[in-house]
Amino acid sequence: MTSAGTKVRVKTMTPPGHIRAPFYLRGKTGEIERILGRFKNPEQLAYGLPAAEKTLYRVRFSMAELWGDAAENPTDTLDAEIYDHWLEEA
Amino acid sequence: MPHDHHDHDHLSPSGHPYRQDNDAPLTYFQRMEIAVRELLIEKGHLTPAEIATQIDAMDARSPANGAAVVARAWTDPEFKARLMDNAGDATREMGFDIGPLHLVAVENTADTHNMIVCTLCSCYPRNLLGLPPDWYKTRAYRSRAVREPRAVLREFGVELPQTTQIRVHDSTADMRYIVLPARPEGTDGMDAAALARLVTRDSMIGTGLALVPENT
Amino acid sequence: MGGHSAGPIPMESHDFALWEKRVDALMVLCGAKGLFTVDGLRRALEDMGEDAFEKYSYYDRWIAATNQNLVEAGVYSLEELGQRMEEIAKRGPTYGEAQE
Prior knowledge:
Number of strands of chain B: 4
CATH topology of chain A: SH3 type barrels
CATH class of chain A: Mainly Beta
Distance between the termini of chain B: 42 Å
Number of strands of chain A: 5
Shape of chain A: globular
Order of helices and strands of chain A: EEHEHEE
Oligomer: heterotrimer
Distance between the termini of chain A: 13 Å
CATH topology of the largest domain in chain B: Nitrile Hydratase, Chain A
Largest sheet of chain B: 2 strands, parallel
Strand content of chain A: 35-45%
Order of helices and strands of chain B: HHHHHHEEHHHEEHH
Radius of gyration of chain B: 20 Å
CATH architecture of the largest domain in chain B: Alpha-Beta Complex
Number of helices of chain B: 11
Structural class of chain A: mainly beta
Number of helices of chain A: 2
Helix content of chain A: 10-25%
Shape of chain B: globular
Helix content of chain B: 40-55%
Largest interface: B-C, 59 and 60 residues
Strand content of chain B: 5-15%
Number of domains of chain A: 1
């Protein structure tokens, strides 16, 4: 999909069930920190189904982006692993 | 678990020395564990020996394993480069059996401090450090670490200046993280074995710092 | 739960009991043998609902999730599980005495 440094947004969709994109990151914009490789989609593995491989990214968010004025220090960061089907280019 | 049986002198109803885990009243989920284990064995999926071996392997893993990796990285720049590039392979190179773990090392420096959490469950580099401490699995740590890491660090006795950038890592998927703490001042000339004794479990989770050697 | 407000972090720890280590071992071994995935365990844990986190201990929840996945995988039936748990209750009042 994309390379390190690209700005991406976590999709805001909220389907029920087992999802590895944490709720607090939905709709937030960050930057690809690195590409981690291809991994089986946990959203299919969770239900005992054959799983397609998906690209997994490490995405870096600023605390200001996540928490606004409530951030302790706006330039502190949070990194999380997000699958490509949860990301859109920002 | 709420319990006040600290003395191991008295005897249980069965006449054996009292052991809290064996002699407290049987719970519903303990019965489930016994039933699941027996059914798995009877149906040929597991053997009692496999279970015992797995428990032994788990008991043998401790933060001392991670501390040896950190001390090597502090003393061997080429190893450190390999650790930062692929922490899983570098750890296996030292002989630690970490299974299929995908391990990422993140380095603390003079101006950067890293901290690990798993907000979705309790992901932890258990194959290297052993089982996570109870606090790591609590709602309080998992809720707050991503929002107010500095306040969390203060509860662990770590006060960082605003000029130090904090990087929190949420283990949301397939990676596990280990913090490479900053090597403390006053450790020039110490060998890897002595340095490893300064590396605490919490310093590798990022809720602590490596210990400063006692003045001699 | 990431980002929710919460009180001070409880720092007390406990040594793992034998039954907790066994739950952990069962979970790891069943995963290694392909009977279920860690994602299946997490899904079952989440399906227990938020209040399960308050009501049950860590390994209470993990054995329940392990069992849920094994039933779904057809490793044994609910009837077999239920009968065995009844038998175990009759063996004795403590974990130690309830072993075969």
